[in-house]
Amino acid sequence: MAAKILTVAQQKGGAGKTTITAHLAVAFTAAKKSVAVVDIDPQQSLAMWYRLRAERLGDAGAGLLVSAVKGWRSRAEVEKLARDHDIVLIDSPPHAETEAKIAVRSANLVIVPVQPSPMDVWATKPTLELAQQEKVPAILVLNRVPPRANLIDEMLAEIQTYGAKIAKARIGNRVAFASALAEGRAVGEFQPRGQAASEIRALAKEVLRAAS
Ligand SMILES: Nc1ncnc2c1ncn2[C@@H]1O[C@H](COP(=O)(O)OP(=O)(O)OP(=O)(O)O)[C@@H](O)[C@H]1O
Ligand SMILES: [Mg+2]
Fold it and tell me: Rounded to whole angstroms, how far apart are CA atoms 5 and 28?
């Protein structure tokens, strides 16, 4: 099986990598895809979320596989998981060039969360350059977008100078994301009719299209 390998990367800490990885994983599972996630961040936040999820829902109820590995081992792990899953998602650590490089090199698509502030946008450059060097397409995802984001147009113009694709689906600044993760869940399971859940569904569709 030729799995799609999607790496969520952003050198800047706290951009939303783990939040987006966990939510995309659950959204793909809900769309009947078999999903494996590789957590190469030594903070292991995604693995912790999964442990909570498996405790609450059981391994079968958790609906996906999460494997926590050290960066240098990730390539072999990804190749193994890619053999029997539709999608392999990689959550990568901040400030870790070597690990990020390994994770980006393995991917069909790099998903780059970015918050709409000038510092965050500037900090995106190394990640986009890395994707370019490795010849892997990248898609920027605006995360924690406030309801009235006057800055957004300016930010989009700035990002466009980096030559990256920007996802149409934007993720709002919503407490529901953290509340759902704190229960080992995702927003689609927590508040299925909420705005947060529909943003994630839209992003999941768009990302799959971009990776195919
Ligand atoms: N869309 C959002 N709305 C509200 N809060 C969010 C959103 N996305 C992320 N957060 C919050 O921002 C913080 C950082 O998110 P997260 O851990 O996903 O980022 P990260 O990029 O994985 O961080 P790190 O670089 O440390 O791995 C968390 O407290 C999370 O709950
Ligand atoms: Mg993280």
Answer: 13
- Domain range for 148: 4-210
CA distance 152 to 167: 13
pLDDT in tens, 32-85: 999 999 999 999 999 999 999 999 999 888 899 999 998 778 899 999 999 999
- The predicted model scores a pTM of 0.96
Q: Name the residue at shortest CA distance from atom 13 of ligand 1.
A: 14
| Helices and strands (H and E) in the chain: how many | 10, 7
45 lines ligand 1 (CB under 6 A): yes
Give the chain's domain count: 1
Tokens (6 digits) for 115:
């918050």
Atom of ligand 1 nearest to the CA of 172: 1
CA of 90 to the centre of ligand 1 (A): 16
